[in-house]
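#struct-help
A.M.: can someone run this one for me? Single chain, 229 residues.
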Amino acid sequence: MIATSADAVASASDAASDTGFSASATAPTVVASTVPLTNTAQLAQASSAAGAASGTMATGTTEKPADEGGMPQLRTEYWPGQIVWMLVIFAIFFVVIAKVFAPRLRKVIDRRGETIAEDLANARANRDEAEAQAKHAAAETAAAHAAAKKLAAEAVARSNAETAAAQADEDTKLNARLGEADARIRAARDEAMSHVRDIATDTAQALVEKLTGKAVTAAALKSALGKVS
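D.P.: on it. Structure tokens below:
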């Protein structure tokens, strides 16, 4: 019977030690009796030991030390260390950025700026070349227009001169032909007039002879025609 009571006390002590607290600090010490106990007495002793252990567990779980309240980051006694570590981390980040990332970024920016400047220079050179070619083409076009106008004027003048020369030649030929024709007409007229006089003389002589039955002399007919004309 004594062993049973001792086992109950040992189990209660183990339960208290599992929670992190000592049962002997707060619970009353249970002393095993060497006197033989009855079943009722054994049960009462075991229940009292269990109650003491549970009370000790409840007290250990509810009580907290006074210095464990709140987050450490919000407690002023931790601020100096936090500030030191923050400065160390900031310095590390600053050195890494200044020595590693910033030079690479600067190289990329410089290379991009050089590329842009080179592209702009090439674009300006192409624009200047295009403008020069356009001016040269405009000058050539103007020269071609002037040459074409000059050739056209020369052709018109040459054509006018040739036309005038041909017209003058034709006029000269025509005047010569007209003069010749006029001369021929005059000669033909004179010749015709001379024949008309002869024809008139013959006709008058024939009429006079028919009417009078006498022959008329040529001198008398000429004097009579002279009077009529």
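A.M.: thanks! The longest helix spans residues 79-212.
D.P.: also worth noting: The chain is about 85% helix and 0% strand.
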